[in-house]
Amino acid sequence: MAxxxxxxxxxxxxxxxxxxxxxxxxxxxxxxNGFALPEAATVVEIFQSANALGTSMRINGPRYDxxxxxxxxxxxxxxxxxxxxTDSIExxxxxxxxxxxxxxxxxxVHSMLTEERMxxxxxxxxxxxxxxxxxxxxxxxxxxxxxxxxxxxxxxGEGAHAIAWNGxxxxxxxxxSTPLRAALALIEKDFGAEVALEITGVVRLRFEAQFAAxxxxxxxxxxxxxxxxxxxxxEMNCGRTITIEEAAQFVAMSxxxxxxxxxxxxxxxxxxxxxxxxxxxxxxxLSETDLPVDKIARRxxxxxxxxxxxxxxxxxxxxxxxxxxxKRSFSEARRELI
Length: 338
What we know:
The chain is an alpha/beta fold. It has 13 helices and 8 strands. α5 (179-191) runs parallel beside α13, α10 packs across α13 and α11 crosses α12 (305-315). The chain is elongated, with a radius of gyration of 23 Å. Pfam families: HTH_18.
């Protein structure tokens, strides 16, 4: 996911001439310092995946030109301290230049509510040409852009009214659909439901796979029966405090030999494997339940919600709350397409 976002950031820093006969649709993503990375990055990935499929399959459809935008342009940081390069909003502010605009979310959006240049720019946009989709807290910026004396009010997410979803007009209750679903709806309109569904699967699988492969990435051959048994024991007992001595005793090995064999055969230390198992279990509970983050952390042996958030930021680049929101957006989008 971050790879696609970094690519869009690089393109913003140095635009290159692309020899492509397809029509171009410009997609803007409005960012600010401290923006939440996951859904904004996934929107970028969705459109860039559509570009790749359109080229490889020679599908008759537009090419999406994604622009990362901020008030002053230049380098800004996400909430997880990933830096991206952006264009200034003034460079893309005239009516008709953007086909769709996504507004990033994140708690830091509150600092933008008094930023007159951003609010005025949003107020000037013409919804007859641009379709605007706020991501989570990004909706607050649209609220700030509304004023009683503005005849052309920016309506919260109602830019979706012009999009068909699976050939049907989007109902009033669906106009607040998530940005991921909105991006896929645009692609479905341009390329068809089959392409949109394939992109949903590709993006979801890439999101899920970014961590899952880690435990065995350096493994040599097939683990022995004892090491496989110890790994299963770690998985079964991941919800409580575990010592290396306990794990070694379970398979009747000395601690030193157990540590050496586990590292060689599994590719990671027992402690790292246990952490991977715990994070994987947390991911499942975040996706499949409404349990609070603190309760999930305790159930998975993480201790506290703060420790869980720290590990998620380190290994997945998102907070548990952001992960939960992204996973549910994927699931909702896929259900709508099927």
